């Protein structure tokens, strides 16, 4: 089964995604395909929230676990070797996602049916098919290109 590869999100995008999500200490931030857990670590350190990271690649998961332990965030960040198609989307209040538009399309309906009112979803590069964005920001990167970031609010 094909899965999206691990690509670390540039710091400029991390900052923008976290700011757009308007995270508070009461939130549970979920990263579908959390990679090395960097974005979850940043969210927990900045906002004091809880977080859940899903990652299927065992080597990348080992890196995520080591990073979470290095920052003493084991009580705040739960890491799951779980397929995001099997995840209970009602658990999160903020979703930080970097997946292809095709994958986002496959997640669109299951997420819409399960997430609670007030949930925020932030994607970059690709929009969420059939969802109306609350905000769209073009983020210039230090590498010279520009990336699109989309915020969705469930009402």
Annotation, overall tally of beta strands:
7
Q: What's the helical proportion of residues?
A: 25-40%
Average pLDDT across residues? 93
User: What is the CA-CA span between the terminal residues?
Assistant: 34 Å
Identify the overall geometry: globular
Q: What strand order characterises the main sheet?
A: 3-2-1-4-5-7-6
Annotation field: number of helices: 4
Oligomer: single chain
Over the alpha carbons, how many angstroms does the gyration radius reach?
14 Å
Unreliable stretches (pLDDT < 50, length at least 5) are: none
The profile of the biggest β sheet is: 7 strands, mixed
Residue fraction in strands: 15-25%
Q: What is the H/E order? A: HEHEHEEHEEE
Coarse structural class: alpha/beta
Lay out the secondary structure.
Elements: H1 11-21, E1 28-32, H2 38-47, E2 50-54, H3 58-70, E3 77-80, E4 94-97, H4 101-114, E5 120-124, E6 135-140, E7 146-153
Parallel strand pairs: 1-2, 1-4, 2-3, 4-5
Antiparallel strand pairs: 5-7, 6-7
């Amino acid at each position: 089964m094909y899965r999206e590869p691990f690509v670390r999100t540039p710091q400029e995008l991390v900052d923008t995604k976290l700011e757009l999500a308007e995270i508070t200490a009461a939130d549970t931030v979920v990263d579908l395909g959390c990679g090395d857990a960097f974005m979850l670590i940043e969210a927990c350190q900045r906002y004091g929230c809880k977080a859940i990271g899903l990652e299927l690649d065992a080597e990348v998961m080992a890196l995520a676990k080591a990073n979470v332990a290095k920052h003493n965030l084991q009580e705040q960040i739960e890491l799951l070797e779980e397929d995001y198609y099997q995840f209970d989307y009602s658990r999160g209040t903020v979703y930080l996602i970097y997946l292809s538009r095709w994958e986002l399309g496959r997640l669109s309906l299951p997420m819409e049916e399960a997430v609670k009112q007030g949930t925020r979803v932030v994607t970059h590069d690709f929009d969420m098919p059939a969802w109306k964005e609350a905000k769209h920001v073009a983020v210039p990167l230090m590498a010279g290109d520009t990336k699109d970031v989309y915020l969705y609010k469930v009402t």
